[in-house]
From TrEMBL:
One of its GO terms (cellular component) is nucleus. One of its GO terms (molecular function) is damaged DNA binding. Belongs to the DNA repair metallo-beta-lactamase (DRMBL) family. This is Protein artemis. It comes from the Eukaryota. It is found in: Nucleus.
Amino acid sequence: QKEDIEVTLLPAGHCPGSVMFLFEGENGTVLYTGDFRLSKGEAARMELLHSGTRVKDIQSVYLDTTFCDPKFYHIPSREECLNGILELVRSWTSLSRYHVVWLNCKAAYGYEYLFINLSEELGIKVHVNKLDMFRNMPEILYHITTDRHTQIHACRHPRDDDCFRGNRLPCGMTCQNGTPLNIISIKPSTMWFGER
């Protein structure tokens, strides 16, 4: 039996290029979310989820349920998280140029929002190992650098935690101009938030 279906890719907001799939055919409409992150009201602005002025009738939703657990009852908004991190980074980096922040990011992608906003607000570029993976995201290239002499690092090492314990950044920096660095680590993670 053959059936024509229409497949629409919708932005998932999880990391650059992430999508949800909307399948529409004679037997109904199905939404497959995969990993997604939408702000309140964002789905209402997605024209492709609507037919005229009505939301499309979706018979089945295959939903990523990573955070479908009572311990994740309240997850702060992206803006709340950014403001908390921004306040902490600003207060630490303003102490001296030897006060450095390491953003302990476990995944390669998905932190672009954080890097861009920290850089814009504080005027400090974020150190990353390589620019290659960001080449197709020109909006972030102005906010990141491979120059280790910056106060915000998101560089990575296979054994990041071991590096940090020795008061050194994953890129190997421990001091600047002979002055030891004072390093704090911030681990941006919803999983970590839920565990606490």
